[in-house]
Amino acid sequence: MSNDREIVVLGAGMHPWGKWGRNFVEYGVKAAQDALKDAGLAWQDIQFVAGADTIRNGYPGFVAGATFAQALGWTGARISSSYAACASGSHAIASARAQILAGLCDVALVVGADAAPKGFFAPVGGDRPDDPDWVRFHLLGATNPAYFGMYARRRIDLYGASVEDFAKVKVKNARNGLANPNARYRKAFTAEDVAASPIVCDPLRLMDICATSDGAAAVVLCSKEFAARHTTDPVRISAVSTVTPTFPSALIELPDIATDSSAAVAPQELSFRASLAHAAYEEAGIGPEDLSLAEVYDLSTALELDWIEDLGICARGEAEKLLRDGATEIGGRIPVNASGGLASFGEAVPAQAIAQVCELTWQLRGEAGDRQVAGARVGITANQGLFGHGSSIVVTR
Amino acid sequence: MTKDHKPVVPGWFTTSGEDFSLLGTRCTACGTVFFPRRETFCGNPACSGTEFAEIPLSRRGTVWSYTNAGYRPPAPFVSDPDVEWRPYTIVAVRLEAEGLIVLGQGAPGVGVDDLKVGDTVEIVPGVLYEDDEYVHTTWNVRPVEVRA
Ligand SMILES: [Zn+2]
């Protein structure tokens, strides 16, 4: 399981998730400094800075690479800024990886940070019927959780899932999050707590849906040659998949009010989410049977179950059985969201996909404390945002 | 005084006659259907079509999934913050002939308990909101048979 496209995660760092009421740059700098310290490098050693953008914090958020480079002190390092909705962090990692693999730099810093408003994410202002994101809010009031609700309802009607299964995901992830110092909610939840929370989008309740948070994550990435001078047992990124859907995309996805039509061309067998993982497995030369753990985007509890199937860990409709059998718990056959997931973090959009890689790095090094997955060697992340963005990253040791 | 009716987006559904339907376009080269309508270039990567014919979409389909809005959605959704929030249903409808899924609000009175994946539903005229000048019209989704 080693290929010439691998790069190394030399350092990982985070600013704890929460609602801190400060500027996102402050969070990003803290995460970056922690990642540098973890890598044993100085800021001046960094040749390339890849920022993951936030669209909620004005111009500095759109030029995140420059913003963090300036905040840490201009050094002449080259920069990039990536926006890819929830996959922005992975696109920033992909940007840094391309520089390293092309031999244009040896060592890069990737940073994502956000300060998020309370409540539903909403589109930017103005009257814009040409913008699907405007259309879905104006015509339907279809918030992000409305889409999650529709996916969850299909699990109930097609696979016999229950709202109790969904609550089990929250209970599991909250328990994992208790052992994570960077998690926002370090509180145990019971199935009764979930059932007592109000319905947001039937069948999902408030406790089934992830909140919006402030937070930051950073990684120091480098070539294998550079890493050899700093470590003898590197944690490697073996695949970065950021594929887009193929036409016709046949599942209703954020922010669209209709799917592509399959009147002329039949849809491919793999859904968009499954194709993200499939490309990652191909690139890494592994399969789902090789995984020690998975960090997936549990924007809702039910969505974690969809992802387990999209990752090929079990067949369609069987994720509830895995969950009920305890296979996805820490200590189970395939722990899912050992970090506590978005259920414990809340979403800090540009930081989240980087945070998934931080968690896998710590898990594979055996540094995850009370949430450690014993003997973890291979991990995968999965993430999806709107407008055809998504990612899946394979981390190996 | 009766207010004029105004479609919330022009050209997305019929506004006269008996047979209400959504309006899409069909690429004359490959036959792919588009809703919302496409009129400049085809979205099928294997097709270079640039001509499109307007077509009415099927008026009946099956429920792909459904949910509701338990909380008031943010702007640009239009609602009166002084009126108590009442959840409405959102339905994803699979149209067989067009090979696509389209979302719509459930017709007034249609709740999540009235729906099941696979049920037959129809697309009917609806009202999104009213202001001083207009009744802003849209499409709604309604079960064809009331469940027992
Ligand atoms: Zn065409």
From TrEMBL, chain A:
Annotated Pfam families: Thiolase_C_1 (PF22691), Thiolase_N (PF00108)
GO molecular function: acyltransferase activity, transferring groups other than amino-acyl groups
Domain Thiolase C-terminal stretches: 277-395
All copies of domain Thiolase N-terminal, residue ranges: 8-224
InterPro entries associated with the record: Thiolase, Thiolase-like, Thiolase_C_2, Thiolase_N
PANTHER family noted in UniProt: ACETYL-COA C-ACETYLTRANSFERASE, NON-SPECIFIC LIPID-TRANSFER PROTEIN-LIKE 2
Protein's name in the database: Lipid-transfer protein
Organism field: Embleya scabrispora
UniProtKB/TrEMBL annotation, chain B:
TM helices/strands, residue ranges: none
Name by which UniProt lists this protein: Benzoylsuccinyl-CoA thiolase
The ChsH2 rubredoxin-like zinc ribbon domain, residue ranges: 21-52
Tree of life domain: Bacteria
Domain ChsH2 C-terminal OB-fold: residue ranges: 55-124
Provenance organism: Embleya scabrispora
